[in-house]
């Protein structure tokens, strides 16, 4: 009794203590793993497609190309990394082996590799050069190791899975740390296959991914994320055009959207609101029409404006962008691609240069338990680990921003606190004009980062209305540009 009394007295005199005891909301399951959260925070990674195709002008090598065709005259991975770093990429994924089976490292398990090419007189190892160059500039290094191998004589036979695992072991033991393993979905068809020159198909369980994934994880640290059409860590977005759907749930039900069933692309494009697993999408797209360099596409490099649009429709919809920039036959990123990337970076920097919230007043409709830990300040503290939250029963709410002076607004950027699961299903944005509030945007999911582009409008009051959510709100940030 005495204890209860002193506790009440304490709460009376020091209400802040009591407020800080308000527990956080219960998670909405499933929730992301730490490695998925870390990966999402990278936002933009680069894909590098480089192999014999660069020299044969193909997109899919057949597996019978002579190793001697691989002959970059001035390969300079340091140049790639400089260009990519300046453009804002955080990681790079290299096609260590594409469908033709040619290895960019001197694998002991095949003759179809860089060791039999003229590159550095057969002593070259581009996986080494690229992973070292990444380390020097603190870019993360990732591996594309094509499951389909049109060179291997044993492809589609039991021995190939061991061959694949041996190559994965070589890469994962000697070139780490590796942040992402990219497992391509193209599997089986015609090929050289050690001279058989035939059509080989595989069954759905041929690769026994479960054990390969265990092996990959055992050879790397916790950070490793694995991409394939439907996970385990990251899913394909269902198109190669550079967008994720406006509604982007991080959750899917891998069993009910099994690889390449009709309608599969649509499901992985939007995710599933009540999916059983947290498997966020990655938007892979090339800066050129093809994945590999072709001189005939030098004039078809995507413009800075188009790249910015892609950024808004991928990162701006809560996904991670994987933009392919293929080196040319010299082994350099081509001047046209560099120009486009520089222009893109400039547009991006200009668009998000000045956050108009500096000096603004931000208020919210309700605060969870009236606790400071969950109040409106958490929205503007530049810390994604703190968040504004509502009471458990409150699945709607409003953020109101008073810009103090009239400003022209182009973008509203919102961040959902995802450690407790994805919640928001619908929200609107309004601005105050002389004749009242006007709706300027309507959206569905929010996610890690949601950039809402609006028709430029001059106003001093902005309101975000969360109209539907799976549970109480947890919003970690808002910015206005
Ligand atoms: C596809 C492959 O077939 C393309 O060649 C490319 O590597 C792309 C990223 O994935 O499935």
What would you say this structure looks like, in words?
The chain has 481 residues and is of the alpha/beta class. The chain has two domains: 34-351, Alpha-Beta Barrel (TIM Barrel), CATH 3.20.20; 361-480, Jelly Rolls, CATH 2.60.120.260. It is built from eleven helices and 19 strands. It has helices at residues 2-13, 15-20, 34-40, 53-56, 77-87, 126-136, 158-174, 209-219, 264-270, 304-314, 335-351; strands at residues 44-48, 91-97, 140-145, 178-182, 189-191, 198-200, 225-228, 234-236, 251-252, 277-278, 281-286, 320-324, 361-364, 388-389, 397-416, 424-433, 436-443, 450-469, 474-480. Helix 6 (126-136) links the parallel strand 2 (91-97) and strand 3. Helix 7 (158-174) runs parallel beside helix 8. The radius of gyration is 25 Å and the shape is globular. The N and C termini lie far apart (55 Å). The model is unreliable at 1-18 (pLDDT under 50). Bound molecules: beta-L-fucopyranose. Residues 59, 184-186, 284, 291 line the site of beta-L-fucopyranose (FUL).
